[in-house]
């Protein structure tokens, strides 16, 4: 395996903490630098405080650690971004430019940057959404992710930048809590089911969305970054299918393990966002180009979530 020195930006978030853990197992703790806007207590390897908008500090860190690969995860998610629209645009776009420019100028070799199902909108086919289709996002987050995708492809075509990306569905894991997304209910529901046996959902019972267990999402991210670049036909961002379910279906699955569990519904502004997103995704490009295969379905994920959270509590 070639020597990699990795920087993860936004390492304190839901994906970041799990990704850093896995990358350190694979490449050695000292070869994976985690960074975030604040010190979140990562002591398992090198950590740097980094504001993703501070391109001078970013450059210093890249030089200091001789970074080869950057995983750039820092962003405001869909629900939070609606409350700070200008800052969300600034953070989500300009931090991406800083990383793309580092690669363009030859300072790093490879970039991972996540996009999202939020690039789709009300005129996108909702079922089995294809890779190439109408993208008319109605959220600031979705607009920034779609623009980011176009810039990634542009930098790849014009400057040969090796940037790779996945349109993450809602991600569900037991180690860390998500922050500010529309799909966050699907994590919180497990915590509340164990804590109080009930959950009030901010989406309607039939709001189906594509989701994925964190184990699969981290594996997908690392597999895409290790894939043979000559096979990759998508340099904007790959669709990733995951598991499609609605709040009623996840509640029914939880009830099989915790029979007294009860769900109620109090939809808020996030319901409208959910309605503008697909309910299921076609990921045949990921399957063909880098042999992607999902492992966790709703049952397997629910069993593992409840088992792992019970151990932690
Ligand atoms: C969100 O809900 O904003 C995110 C996403 C789907 O990108 N989880």
Number of helices: 11
What is the CATH topology descriptor of the largest domain?
Rossmann fold
List ligands, each type once. Answer: 2-amino-3-ketobutyric acid
N→C terminal distance: 38 Å
What's the helix-strand series? EHEEHEHHEEHEEEHEEHEEHEHHH
* Integer-rounded radius of gyration: 19 Å
Percent range for helical residues?
Answer: 40-55%
Trace the largest sheet across and list its strands. 3-2-1-4-5-7
Structural class: alpha/beta
Name given to the CATH architecture of the largest domain? 3-Layer(aba) Sandwich
Within CATH, the superfamily of the largest domain carries the name: NAD(P)-binding Rossmann-like Domain
The average pLDDT is: 97
Strand residue content:
15-25%
| Low-pLDDT segments | none
Number of DSSP strand runs: 14
Would you kindly provide a written description of the structure presented here, covering whatever features stand out?
This protein is an alpha/beta fold and 313 residues long. It has two domains: 6-171 and 212-239, 3-Layer(aba) Sandwich (Rossmann fold); 172-210 and 242-281 and 296-312, UDP-galactose 4-epimerase, domain 1. The chain is built from eleven helices and 14 strands. The strands form four sheets. Strands 3-2-1-4-5-7 form a six-stranded parallel beta sheet, sandwiched between helices. Strands 6-8-12 form a three-stranded parallel beta sheet. Helix 4 (85-104) packs parallel to helix 5, helix 6 packs parallel to helix 8 (247-257) and helix 8 (247-257) crosses helix 11 (298-312).
